Amino acid sequence: MTTSEKRLALNEALFRETNERLEERVRLFVGEEEMFGVLCECASLDCSERITVTKEEYAWIRSDSAQFVVKPGHSLGAVEEVVAKNDRFEIVRKQGVAGEVVEFLDGQPGDAGE
Fold first, then answer.
1. How confident is the model over 68-80, as pLDDT tens digits?
2. Partner of 10 at 20 to 30 A CA spacing, among 4, 35, 43, 45?
3. What are the phi and psi torsion angles at 15 (to 5°)?
4. What is the DSSP letter of 21?
5. What is the DSSP letter of 88?
6. Which residue ranges make up each domain of the chain?
7. Which residues 6+ apart lie within 8 Å of 88 measured at CB?
8. pTM of the entire structure?
9. Is 112 in a helix, a strand, or coil?
């Protein structure tokens, strides 16, 4: 794995962890609202775009540790494939070594997915 691929996977894992913590807070303060906003989980540390998802969409995205939610056009074909999309977002799945990195990170102590 190149340093660049590892960095991209780590960036996306960071945004996923942020969104998982945000989702916990949303449940506390918003209750059973149908939609809520998350951060784009693309590899760019400069991206601060928000995406609106339903609880069901978010649960499906999180059902696979190699999946991330990104704004349309933010996917990186070299290390991930688009597995679903709509007008609000694309769901991408990490491939190859990048997928292995995010799966490893997903199981680490202190991770929100634990």
1. 899 999 988 777 8
2. 35
3. -65, -35
4. H
5. S
6. 3-106
7. 51, 52, 53, 72
8. 0.64
9. coil
